[in-house]
Design a protein that fits this description.
The protein is mainly alpha-helical and 397 residues long. The chain is built from 17 helices and 4 strands.
């Protein structure tokens, strides 16, 4: 097209734009720009529809307006009431509609609440099969009895206390249950392998089930003690307060767990206790069950002599003897494993004495390793005078 004489020269020249494909090179545009398509009127899209074979038979159709579009939220015509107004009006309407006479009528027509109408309100009868499951670890250990030292102790003290036979049978049963249940927990906490020459219960039934079984038996033993009060009411003549057996039971079980807790703390933190601390721990842990038996007998006896200190001393001597047998007795090694206290890293009375007597701390380093090496066990027997003397009898039953 010829340029107008009045038009500037640059208006008549072709427009050059950068060409993206030539990376900045320019080329003349030979075709006019394509105009944008005209704007279409906006139309609200309809909700997607599913094929008939995929539609849910109970589906609720989407809510639409009269124009087939989604319904719009409308402002309420009546303004909302404040909360205090509608609460007060609701309470007043309820009070007006429900009268005392109506409440009495409903109560008289309602059936009484019983276990038959609401079977889920209370526990169902416990079956023997379920009981066998819970007491499985306990029954396993109880079926392989030990030396039964505690029942012998009860028989010996009864020569002085003269406890009635029915009450003595309950006390003997309770002490036996507590002793066996506590051994289950001890074996778990000590990571023992053998008990009475057999695999420990938690290696067969599992740790969780064994702990639950032991705790369950603790409460079964507690239930047995309530029978002592029933015997008192039936036979008469005993002026001791009711619940005395339960009080003794709780006190000595607290002492037992205190002693066990300190024993575990020293082992896990490699803290060497003093001999006095160790004797206090033994009086709580081992002496607690001995005292429990004698104190329960005293609660059912007419005797006024307190034999609990003697029982505590017997328990302490029994534990020290057991500590010594753990290191030197061949019978103990067969039933519980060789030098079990050393392999567990436990501070028994001979080990504490040897560590404090040997400035080289050889035994403490052996204890830190928690090794089952027999050579280390033999070496420890010669450290600090641990191996002086003969070997003793069997270990804890």
């Amino acid at each position: 097209m010829p340029s107008s004489p009045t038009s500037p020269a640059f208006l008549s020249s072709p427009i050059r734009r950068p060409n993206r494909r030539t990376f900045g090179l320019v080329s003349p545009i030979t075709s006019p720009r394509t105009p944008y398509p005209p704007k279409m009127a906006h139309k609200t899209p309809s909700p997607p529809t599913r094929p008939a074979h995929l539609a849910s038979p109970g589906a609720i159709p989407p809510r639409t307006s009269s124009t087939n579009g989604p319904s719009q939220t409308q402002k309420p015509v009546v303004p909302p009431l404040p909360e205090s107004s509608w609460l007060s009006s609701r309470h007043s309407s309820l009070a007006a509609s429900v009268s005392p006479a109506a409440i009495d009528q409903v109560a008289s027509n309602s059936p009484p609440t019983t276990a038959t109408t609401h079977p889920s309100t209370g526990p169902t009868p416990w079956s023997e099969a379920k009981e066998t499951i819970l007491t499985g670890p306990y029954d396993y250990l109880d079926s392989h009895p030990g030396k039964d030292i505690r029942s012998r102790l009860i028989g010996a003290f009864d020569a002085w206390l003269h406890v009635p036979a029915p009450a003595l049978a309950i006390i003997t049963k309770v002490v036996g249950m507590l002793h066996t249940a506590s051994l289950l927990v001890d074996d778990v906490e000590d990571s023992s392998l053998l008990r009475r020459g057999l695999p420990v219960a938690h290696s067969i039934f599992g740790t969780a089930q064994t702990i639950n079984s032991a705790n369950y038996v603790y409460f079964l033993a507690l239930q047995e003690l309530f029978k002592l009060d029933d015997l008192r009411d039936k036979e008469g003549g005993n002026t001791k307060p009711r619940g005395e057996a339960v009080r003794i039971y709780s006190e000595e079980l607290i002492n037992l767990h205190r002693g066990q807790g300190m024993d575990l703390y020293w082992r896990d933190t490699l803290t060497v206790p003093t001999e006095a601390d160790y004797l206090e721990m033994v009086r709580n842990k081992t002496g607690g069950l001995f005292r429990l038996a004698v104190r329960l007998m005293q609660a059912e006896s007419a005797s006024t002599t307190d034999f609990a200190p003697l029982a505590s001393l017997i328990g302490t001597l029994y534990q020290i003897r057991d500590d010594y047998a753990n290191l030197l007795s061949p019978t103990y090694s067969t039933n519980k494993g060789m030098c079990e206290d050393l392999t567990e890293g436990k501070f028994s009375f001979p080990i504490i004495h040897a560590i404090r007597a040997d400035p080289s701390l050889v035994l403490l380093n052996i204890l830190r390793q928690k090794s089952a090496d027999e050579e280390l066990c033999v070496l420890s027997r010669g450290a600090g005078g641990v191996g002086e003397g003969g070997g003793g009898g069997g270990g804890e039953g």
